[in-house]
């Protein structure tokens, strides 16, 4: 049998300790927080296998849950089309695993449409330097076809700042210029959130965060309507979904390793979050409480009682509270009936229930003068089971 490593043992111990804390541990839910602190009722993060980083000679691999828009295969050009109505095949080319703009052929867009996302792509301006300002290695990445993250060869090439590489075009210049030399591959990692409107009112302006070659250049920048050329944009709703577009600006800019990961809904549009509106929090707490009660129905004895008590920390329910209280009375009666040395066999259960009652009375889910709590505390004191303070 293969012996576990020290690292594996340490991880197991940490995981066991975290799970052992379980319920009745951190501060309970409140009016705008549907979960307790350190709440084991929250969903575990989905497992994603990380990809690998790119080099100049080799694109990296995407994470396991990424949706690949262009990974270097010739047939992946079929995921794109010319940005025209009616749609038609694009004249952009795939050469040696690279998607290349054919100047004069027009923008291209993905057939697939999506919205909030983590987007990764890599681009390269021509190694032969021609032109200056906006006329040098110019292209653009249009999220949902609505808002442009500028692509431009700005290596020793000044231009207007809100049109620089990785600017939100017409809105916000980048925080820094970390571009590599012309001909080298540049990496964009973008986090995009579209604007949210309801009944014509803006609830969230939408944001973009951009890293260029690992350097932060846009820090949660508000979209302000999406930007544009020469004219200030007006705050407006975006569609629910849209394509990714790449710009033909007359330069043979190359692209590779284009993929995205959809992002979950924000709290303002009904998604789960640590901090939510009071209405959303109340609804979420009721749902969590119901799930806990359903779980309790599958259990027996002390485990069932504690799970029912746990449920009322999220939402009061008379049946759950009454059933748990009745089971608590039975538990205390059994403790009273346990005589002599046999009480030691109940130590774990008694300490666990006492911990729960301390929590439930502290946060006023149960009355402070609860007789059952007094009884169990007396037993713990008599048996000297309280951990000694160091």
In short:
With 390 residues, the protein is α+β, with helices and mostly antiparallel strands. It has six helices and 15 strands. It folds into two domains: 115 residues, no CATH class; 203 residues, Jelly Rolls (Sandwich).
Oligomer: single chain
Fourth-tier CATH superfamily name of the largest domain: Exo-inulinase, domain 1
**Average pLDDT figure:** 93
The proportion of strand residues reads 15-25%
Q: State Rg.
A: 29 Å
CATH architecture of the largest domain: Sandwich
- Name the poorly predicted regions: 6-20
Number of helices: 6
Q: Tell me about the biggest sheet?
A: 8 strands, antiparallel
Molecular shape: elongated
CATH top level class name of the largest domain = Mainly Beta
Could you please describe the fold and organization of this structure?
The chain is of the alpha+beta class and about 400 residues long. The chain has two domains: about 30-35 and about 275-385, no CATH class; about 65-270, Exo-inulinase, domain 1 (Jelly Rolls), CATH 2.60.120. It contains six helices and 15 strands. It has helices at about 5-20, 280-295, 300-310, 320-335, 345-360, 370-385, and strands at about 65-70, 80, 95, 100, 110-115, 115-125, 140-145, 145-150, 185-195, 195-200, 200-205, 205-210, 215-220, 240-245, 255-260. Strands 1, 3, 4, 6, 9, 12, 13 and 15 form an eight-stranded antiparallel sheet that branches. A hairpin with a 2-residue loop joins strand 3 (about 95) and strand 4 (about 100). The longest helix is centred in the last third of the chain and has 20 residues, at about 320-335. The chain is elongated, with a radius of gyration of 29 Å. Mean pLDDT is about 95; it is low at about 5-20.
